[in-house]
Every structure is written in structure tokens, then in C-alpha cells.
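The aim of this short unit is practical: by the end, you should be able to scan a pair of folded records and say something sensible about each. We start with the first protein, listed as its amino acid sequence and then its C-alpha cells.
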Amino acid sequence: MEPYSIEEFTQKIKKSIQVLLFLFEAKTGIKSKASNIQPHVGDKGAEVYFELEVPFETLDPDIGSFTFTLNKVDDVTVGFFNKVVLTPKADFIYAKHKQPEDHDDMVGLCMGVNYEWSGHEGQNNSKMMLAFEYYLYYDEYDQYYG
């Protein structure tokens, strides 16, 4: 497989992230937003970094209730993105069965949580911010498409 140009990879990966977020919403019911998309290409592969904002609703300002809800949203979100693989075609696929433990194609980071309590009115008064970096390797092409 020939290496991508930065222009080609950027165009493909932005479309792939849109599809990925649609799939995430369809599977989990959580509507999220990606930002700060940073694609990079190299001789042996490519990578993309992006930040993800995941809004959720907290019904009670008590720390116990808040952390319980946060943990539920985090488990669903991280559980989904841990099973996503970036293929050499710059497509994300959802691997039902986790790839081998030594597979090093994703790094996930927790960037923080924002909590706005203004009484009981309003939805999605909380936000979890995550960042993901996915790697693809050109020499894995046959593994997916061979």
C-alpha cells in the first residue's frame, strides 16, 4: 500500500470520524462532538488525534450521584472506543471481539469533566472531555482486506 498524502488522509479521516460518531450515537444513544482533529502521515503509517466532548445529564449535584452517572457514561464511551480500530483504508471499524492485547493502535486520554448545576432544569448539564489517538499501519492492509 502506498503512503497517504496529508491532504488525502485528512479528507478521509474527517469523513471516517463523522461516521464513527454516528455509529457511537446509534449504539449508545450518546451524541458527542469531535474537535481538534490532527492527522499525521508517515512512511509506515498514519495517525489521527481528536478530542471528544460527551455531554450527559446529572440529576443531583451530590458527588455520589454525579460520579455514579459519570462512571456509567465513561464505561459506555471508553468501552466503545476501545473496540474501534483504524484500518489502512482510513476507515474505523468496530471490532466486536477485542484485538490482541499487544495491539497498540489506540491511546485514550481523559481530559476532564465540566459540571454546571443551575437547579434541576436543563439537560446535559455535565460534559466529559476525552482525547483519542489512533494509528494505522500500511503493512496491516492484508490483515483487513487480503
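Turning to the second protein, read its sequence before its C-alpha cells, just as you did above.
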Amino acid sequence: MDNLNEAQQDISKQLLKAYHVLDDVRAKLENIGDDIVINELHDELHSDLSESIQDWLGQIHALDCNMTEFVTDET
């Protein structure tokens, strides 16, 4: 029974780490998007990139919502 509990705790810790990495990626993408706006980069490449970043952030938000059911800071 202890092995099951240890495995469960290990999985919870790994999931929490993944959740924090996801949050770091979200923050970095937001910073890149902000830099595009601040530097007024409106060419086609940066417009496409900005649009993609918004899509990615939406996907990260959906994943975040799904993960919160399983992630706790109590590990």
C-alpha cells in the first residue's frame, strides 16, 4: 500500500511541476505578445505571430482549466 501512495505522490509532484512549466510558458508568450505591441511591430510576420500567440494562450488556458482538477500544492 505504501508503494501505491508513494507512486501517487510522485505523479502529483510531476504534474505540479508540469503545471508550473505551463504557467512559465504562458507568461513568456504574454511577454512576447506585449513586446510586439509595445514596439509597434505591425508587419505581416508579427501580425501572424501575435495572432498565433493569442491562439496558443487560449489553448494553454483550456489546458490549465483541465489540469487544476488534478493539481494541488499540498504535495
